[in-house]
Every structure is written in structure tokens, then in C-alpha cells.
Amino acid sequence: MTLLEEKTADTSEEKHVPFIQEIDEGYHVKIGENALHPMEENHYIEWIELIVDEMVYKKYLNPGDKPEALFKVPRGEKVSAREYCNVHGLWVNK
Ligand SMILES: [Fe+2]
């Protein structure tokens, strides 16, 4: 088992840092604020995770899906998101 390093700063043209929006039902998370991450067969976001206070919510994705997730969950004080790209690894919005 390998401990994955959380990356926080995008220096490439591909966008990996999760972008969180508060919505009426909870939170919407997309991968890339302005440009969405590819969702191709060999390069895609495997999952998006939302952490609200001490609760963790996760959505698994497949190639062809949109790189985003809608979490209909209660609002909290501390909110962050992580995602895993099968090529570029683990990213967090810190
Ligand atoms: Fe990627």
C-alpha cells in the first residue's frame, strides 16, 4: 500500500483541483473551475469526495461521465473536496 500525496496546485493546462459550489440542496463539486477535466477511457476522474465536518461522501465516476458530482447533504462548517485522477493522482482544494 502506498500513501498518496494530496496535490493542491495545478500547473498544467488540465484542471484537477476540485471546485465546490454551495447550492440549495447541498454542494456541487466539479473538477476544474473554468476548464473541465477530460473523462476519456485512459484518462479520467475515478471519484470525487466531499468532506463536510466529520462526514465523508463519495461519488465514483466512469469514462464518459461529466467530471462533477451533486451531493444532497446537510451544510457544515468545514467543507473540502478531493478527487482522484487515474493518471495524475490525488488532488484536494486547500
Ligand atoms: Fe488528469
Automatic annotation (TrEMBL):
InterPro entries, alphabetized: Desulfoferrodoxin_Fe-bd_dom, Desulfoferrodoxin_Fe-bd_dom_sf, Desulfoferrodoxin_SOR
Keyword Zinc tagged: no
Organism (species): Thermosipho ferrireducens
Protein's recorded name: Desulfoferrodoxin
Record carries keyword Metal-binding: yes
Stated family: Belongs to the desulfoferrodoxin family.
Top-level taxon: Bacteria
Pfam (any one): Desulfoferrodox
Keywords in alphabetical order: Electron transport, Iron, Metal-binding, Transport
Sequence ranges assigned to domain Desulfoferrodoxin ferrous iron-binding in this UniProt record: 9-93
